[in-house]
Amino acid sequence: MDLAATPSRSKSKPRSSPAKPVAAPAESRMDLCTPSKPTPRRKSKSTASPAPMSPATRSTVRHSRRLLETPTKAAPEVQVKATPTPTSRGKRAAPSPKTPAQREPKRQKRHPRKRAYYWKVVYDGGEFEVGDDVYVKRREAAESDAEDPEEEECRVCFRTGGGVMVECDACLGGFHLRCVRPPLRRVPEGDWACPYCEVERAGKVAERPRPPEGKRIKRTAREKLLSSDLWAARIESLWREPDGTFWAKVRWYIIPEETAAGRQPHNLRRELYRTNDLGDIEMETILRHCSVMSPKDFRDANDGDDVFYCEYEYDIHWHNFKRLVDIDDELETKEDPNDKPYNAGDDYNSDTDEDSEYDEEEESTSSFSARRNQSHGLAANSRKGRIYGLQKIGIRKIPEHVRCHQKTELEKAKATLLLATLPKSLPCRDKEMEEISIFVKDAICNDQCLGRCLYIHGVPGTGKTMSALAVMRRLRSEFDSGTLRPYCFIEINGLKLASPENIYKVVYEQLSGHRVGWKKALHYLTEHFSGGTKIGKQANQPIILLIDELDLLLTRNQSVLYNILDWPTKPNSNLVVIGIANTMDLPEKLLPRISSRMGIQRLCFGPYSYRQLQEIITSRLKGIDAFEEQAIEFASRKVAAMSGDARRALEICRRAAEFADYRVKQSRQSAQSTASANKGDGVVCMGDIEAAIQEVFQAPHIQVMKNCPKFGKVILVALVHELYKSGLGEVMFDKLATTVSSWCHANRELVPGYDTLVKICCKLGESKIILCEEGSKHKLQKLQLNYPSDDVTFALKESPDLPWLSKYL
Amino acid sequence: MVAAVSVPSQAQTVLRGRLCDPAFVHSALRSSPDTNYSKLKYLVASSVSEACNNSVLLLGPRGCGKAAVVDMVLDDLRKEHPDAISVEIARQLCLEHQLSFSKMASSDDNTEFMIDMLQECGLAHKTILFVLEEFDLFAQGKQRLLYSLLDAMQSLTSQAVVIGVSCRLDADQLLEKRVRSRFSHRKLLFISPSLDDIQWLVEHLLILAKDSGLPAKYITDYNSRLTSIFSDKKFKGCLNSLMDADATTSNILRFLFRAVSYMDMESGFPSIESFLKALSSMQRQPKMDSLQDLSILELYILVCMHRLEDKEQSSYNFTSIMKEYRSIQDAYKTSDKYASTVCFRAFEHLLDRELISFGDNRGRNQALEYRPVKLLISSRELAQSLKLNTTCPVVLQKLFDRERYM
User: Fold this and answer.
1) The model scores a pTM over 0.80
2) Which residues in chain B are contacts of A658 at CB distance < 8 A?
3) Chain B, 207-246: which have a CB under 8 Å from a chain A CB?
4) What ipTM is given for this predicted complex?
5) Which parts of A450-558 fold into alpha helices (H)?
6) Torsion of CA B376, B380, B381, B387, to 10 degrees
């Protein structure tokens, strides 16, 4: 995936690679989708269109003109006026992006370091910025491209303007509200299909209104794109060649027809796929802006014609799809600390309208652009050098069920109750979060940041880590808005370290980006914090170190904890340590010299009370009518009484929702003919919660005991009997077997052989109902009951096949 | 004639094939909604289609068909979602970890790789199923693997199901509290089937269907014989005594397999005898059998050891046994007097058969004669075998009995 980092290599890749091999299936499908346009036209044009002017001569003419206008170097602003008129541009063949791309490497060799990069370029009257989505011209000399209607014509009256238009979700044609039969009052909610499409959907042939004689249907850029006459791309970087031409590196978008899988039934009309294919094109070929949006934005944006939907990335080499990660989310989690100062420093540059110019030689910028590209291209695996062919993972065809599934209330409830879902708000922890945030802010804002340490403790599932991370997120947004000093945040989980000493390595890697052994890392870090040579570029920033599962950093001489907690006490260390662990008295268990460094400021996360749990669950389920009020209360009371673990409460509710969902689905299957759907059926009731709690809290041993084979039961009762008689903790097999056989004898049962008994004992031992030594010890095997003897009594009090057993209990 | 012989053997092959095919054995589970099979299938299928994470624990004694059910569920789901599921078996996972462990840097690299992998697969709408068999063994030590696995599953993008299979009923109690808090506490309990279920299972397995490719006449004959056997009291008693010891499905299957193998090839039809024979072969008592085969001298040694134990001599070795043996021989003047080297051979033989064993593991370099030994068979078993042994001298019987009832 280093395509983005090294431009020369990506150039040699011909752009046509994704389009060519799939051209045939795409076309055959396109007949169905866009009946208004004869498809073969496109093919003949794209292959057999001679460029009227040789591109080489044309470009030289152009760039010489531009050189006059722009100062060569250090120009803060590059304004390129729109020189050619639209008509002349139409006649003059726009160069296909392919040809200059092949010529390019030669030029680069001649002037190796004269490229100038820009954030933003004003070109032909349009303002193009890195990260923008644009239309790119594809065909050469297409006469119809000349007019570029911004506004669409009504499909009935063939006039533009004049009232509100509504778009059909099936054919994407625009209609005046008044032109539709019957006329519409206002724009309908939800999906709307035009009358013609509805007729066609019903299987009949619809007579679409023809345009008046002499008037051609003007196609908008959107239509051209969807019928593959245009390309869409995202600008990844902009630069000016030494000869003055403006170039852009773009990431192509692809329409569903051009993928290997073809258009799939669940594809939306405006859907595009982002590819991992990059290409260099001249700015000349860029037409204008469009906007490609993530599903969420797409839903919100309801107007404009140049809006497209993009949810997946398409791998052109492997021909498979992958969901795109939410970009915002990505930036937040992936951004390395050494990115921050750069961003912060350059904000003023890109905010203003002038173009910042920078050289590629500069180390930080190139690393930045590489990182930027990488974070888009790789999305998931951010660590360098550890890719392992992960990009091969991907799905050939996007399964239909993920796209077309309408969620029921219960399923929605299940989804929101997932532990993984980050809730919008974190109720019930306001006080604690406030405290953490005050602590961190104090530490950061003080100029001579005194090293400090906070110890957070509480039982599992009380939201310790979540609160801490939420505070950090909030601080980050504060930092972004400029009210906070820059800082550096490192998060470490003690259980994810291979050994406690590795923490030095991890911290050092986060600070400097280099990997060293832990001893060396310790040396550097100690030097860093005691005021010697600093690591990294932003040495003076305060560092916030969040250590989850702190108790796992305990070594025998506790040196790791001592070192980490000793750093904050050094002057000028600028280090804040937040430790999270379960045990309340961890500081007291440690050596006094450590507890004196750690135990001063503590924050306790008490287990949630039932009211809080109830609030948490209801806040998650807001707007979803799937749970009975009492059911939630019952679950939260039950969990609060046991542990106060929010994870568990959520899991119980989810499990209960699963039970309800299962029940509903079963009854729907069985009662399809009767069709007497109960209204209250789709709601989680007390019974479901009860069942879920049963599953979580009840140990299964009683049921297993009840289902033991007959001799197993006898053995268990005999064991209880013998243990009671002897008063000891364990009993020898010899004694037990004698008892069992005498009982069997007395009650006219078949007397089992000793070997059978040994076998049964070992089986019981395997499921840990009893604890036993290995069977080869035979007579000398020692047996012990693993559960209280009352459980045995309870389970075997009345067993139908052995009525005599109860008298020995 | 040739055809007549081949029909029963064909039938035998069909039956054996059925018995060894877990999908056929458990096929009854597919129909009813309350079985573990449909519950598990629902769980996995919903987490595939709704793109969420789940973890479930399958508990139950060995031989109840836990792994078989998992396999069936996986097979079915693979048919439904052809490329949405990739199955990761615990062994592979370990292998992967181990492999990178030795080659590359550290385990946190590997966990990170795992998390990346999970995320990538989640983005590609692929669900990863981790089947951890013998789950309790993963819950040893610091449980770093489980923790990182379950923690990785707490992110939205990943899409994974962890299925733990264990025969320890307290497997979830073994988890550390922070790991347990991340585990989603779904438990499915597998228990051994009831008598009715087993009777149904036996019929389901043994009765031949009309379309099994055998002559129709043979099938009707065979089935009528079989039904008469099933209604036989002896057969019911046979099943009962089998279930008294072990009522798991795998045990029943083993029994039926033997019964089918014992089928009389002359007549070509199953008989009650073959079932009885199979039962007796299931209920063998290896200790008793090996006691039957012992020589007189070896029995003498055992009786001597028993006498020593009765004298409350807690620790004894070969030399003290020899002393006892000599005193007996002196008192009764039997013909079974052997040199001590011969006795030592017999003693070693008993050790090899594990009828006696050394008392402790210490003193390995000590000479065998001086290491303390212990009797591994109970006096009851010894008495029984002496009674059954026809060649056993009366003196020996008396010796054993006398000190027993004195």
Assistant:
1) no
2) 42-43, 46
3) 241, 243-246
4) 0.83
5) 464-480, 502-512, 518-529
6) 140
